[in-house]
Design brief:
By secondary structure, the chain is mostly helical.
């Protein structure tokens, strides 16, 4: 199927090269004149498209809803579709694969992971366990919280953490090649800050956690302020100064 734009270009070419009228060119090419004469009335959306491409390039795992929110923050009317630049072609696949795999190692297996190591006094109580579990047990010991495991095959018992882990895996770990532990610490800290202050969260009506916390704090403080302003007033007004409030004696009988 030939696109309308291609048909218009073909008609224009025939008119220019052969010197015939537009009507005759349309008849020869079996093109409807209305489609050739059509002019788009849509507003210029170059700014919105450029902003959308910039967001999609920086946040490759965002869908159209979050891109919509990010555009709205910039005061740009969003489009109906989302765009993403095509991945660059690789001339030498073997060389690219070798470059990606050089220096790769599993950070998770290293003692302490990408985070600072916990105090050594807690390690004795969790001998034989991995560094992440060791850090968790150490924190539970310090805070007096009981340690419980979820039931086998029941990830929904830990739904909030599972959701966070999946989001972190999808948006950060699968998208980043860590050079070393120091680089991992920097990138993870930056991602955590962005997750709290920039990333729209669908569970919070596409607010950021920081914005939601401010809204919640304001909502909690407002009733307290209203209670103070609407404190109970005395039913009877105080007596004006200079007015005698003593009752006159009444004679018996």
């Amino acid at each position: 199927m030939v696109a309308p734009g291609v048909k218009r270009e073909a008609v224009a070419h025939v008119v220019a090269v052969h010197g015939v009228s537009q009507r005759r060119a349309c008849k020869a090419l079996a093109v409807d004149r209305s489609s050739v004469r059509y002019r788009s009335v849509r507003p210029d959306d170059a700014e919105a498209r450029a902003a959308m491409k910039a967001i999609a390039s920086e946040r490759r795992r965002f869908g159209y809803r979050r891109i919509h929110v990010m555009l709205d923050r910039q005061g740009i009317a969003p489009l109906g579709t989302s765009l993403r630049d095509a991945l660059p072609a690789v001339d030498e696949p073997e060389e690219a694969q070798a470059a990606l795999s050089r220096g790769w190692r599993r950070i998770r297996k290293r003692s302490g992971g990408p985070f600072p190591r916990r105090p050594s006094r807690c390690a004795a109580g969790a001998a034989g366990s991995g560094p992440w579990e060791r850090a968790g047990r150490c924190w539970c010991q310090r805070t007096g919280i009981d340690w419980h495991y979820i039931a086998p095959g029941k990830p929904m018992q830990n739904g909030f953490v599972e959701s966070f882990n999946g989001r972190m895996r999808d948006e950060l770990l699968n998208e980043t090649m860590f050079r070393n532990l120091a680089h991992a610490r920097i990138v993870i800290a930056a991602w955590a800050a962005d997750d709290n202050t920039e990333r729209p969260h669908s569970a919070l009506d596409y607010q950021t956690p920081a914005d939601y916390a401010r809204t919640l704090t304001t909502a909690i403080a407002r009733p307290a302020a209203q209670d103070e302003s609407s404190a109970r007033r005395a039913i009877a007004q105080p007596t004006p100064l200079g007015v005698n409030t003593n009752r006159a004696p009444v004679a018996a009988g």
